[in-house]
Amino acid sequence: MPKVFLKTYGCQMNERDSEQVSRMLIERGYEMTPNEKQADVVLLNTCSVRDMAEQKALGKMGLLGRMRARKPEMVFGFLGCMAQSRGAELVRDVGHVDLVVGTQKFHKVADYVDQLVRRKEALRDQLLEDVRYSIVDVEEEEGSQESIREHVLKQSQCTAFVSIMQGCNMHCTFCIVPATRGGERSRRIEEIVSEVRGLVDRGVKEVTLLGQIVNLYGRHEFEKRDGKSPFVQLLEAVHAVEGLRRLRFTSPHPIGFREDLVRAFAELPKLMPHVHFPLQSGSNRILKSMHRAYTAEKYLGLIDQLRGARPDMAFTTDIIVGFPGETAEDYAATRALVERVEFDNAFVFRYSPRRDTPAATMENQVPEEVKEERNQDLLGVVDAFAKKKGEALVGRRVEILCEGPSKTNPDRLTGRSPGNKIVLFEGAPRHVGEVFDVAITRSSGFSLYGDPALLS
Which residues of 205-222 are buried (b: 16+ CB within 10 A; e: fewer)? Predict the structure, then answer.
C-alpha cells in the first residue's frame, strides 16, 4: 500500500485531528512515514491563526511538489484550517494539489485519498500535464464533533489528547477560527468518558481535554446541574475514571471561569494546577477592540481566585503585541500586567492580519518594526519570570509523570510536573508511564533537571 507523509502545523487540536486521520489511513492499509521522500501521498494539516503558519505550509507544499516530476502518481493534499479558509483556490494557485479537506471533514480524508490513489494508478501510463482531477470538500457537516475519537498510541504512551468540542462563537476581531472551525458543537459526556476509559485501559495515565474555548463546553447543548456548568460536570465525570492519574484542559477563555470551575481546582485532585489563560492584552481599550469581553481588572481577579483555590497554580498565556491602534501606553499596560502576574511562560505574538476579520481593516495598523520591538521587549520580561520560577524549584522534590525519552536527548527521560514544567533526568525504561518524585538539581529557565538518585 502507499506510504503517507502527514505534517501538522498549529495547535494541539490540529495534532489531534492528524492523529484521527492517521488512524483511518492505517486501518485502510496505508503506511505512515516520517520520510517525505518515501511518500506516495503528502498531506499537510494546516493552521490559519497567523500568516506565518500559512506561508510555511504553502512553502512546504511548493517544495514537496517537485517530487511529482519523478513520481507523477503522487497525491498532494491540504487539510484543516487553511484548507477550510481558502478552499478551491488552493487547487487553482498550487498547481499540483489534488485534495483540499476542511475542518469538519477529517473523517472523509481516507475515502478521498483512496479515490485519488485509485484514479492515479489507473491513469499511471497516460498522465499528462493538463490532466487534472481534484477533490475539494469544505462543507459543514452536522455531528462532525463526534468524528474525532480514535487514537494512534505509540508504545508506552501515557498521555493523550481528547477532543470534546469543535468551533467557537466568540468572534474576537483578530481571529479567523470561527470561520475555519465553525460554531460551537460539543460531544456528549458519556461519549467522552467512554473514550477516556478506553485510553486508560491502553495505559494512558493523563488526558488533556481539547476545545477552541474548552471551558465553554456544552453551554448550548446541556443544562447546568446543581449549579455546575456542563464543563465542570464533564471534569467530574472524567476525574472519576478509575486508573486515570492526571487531568488537564486547554485552551480556555477567561469568561468561562465561574465559581464552579475555580472550585473544581480545589476539589478535584487529579486536575493539575496549571491553567493556560489567554490574556491577549493588558489594555482595557485594546481588549474592547478585540471583543475579548473582560477587563484587565477582571482577569487579575480570576488569577487571584485560582491561586486561592490552588496556591501552587502555574499560569501560561497568549499575548498579542501590535494590535491595530495599540499605543505605547496600551503596550505599557500589557507589560505591567505581565509583571504583576509573573507568568510561568507566555506565547507572545506580533499581530498578524487575517483576511475576513474585522481587525484586518481597522485603522492605525502598527508598523512592523514597532511590533518587533514590543515583541522582543515582552519576551525578555517573560523569560526573566520563567527563569525565576524554574530556579525556585531547584532543591525541591517535584512529582512528575515520566513520558519517555527526551526528544532532544534520547539518553535522558522526560516528564512533566503538575504545573506542566518539563523535567529531564536519567532513568530506565521501567520508569516510563510512572508517577514519582524527582529532586530538581538545576533549571535552564524553561526546563528542569532532576537527580536520578531518587529513582529505584
Answer: bbbbbbbbbbbbbbbeeb
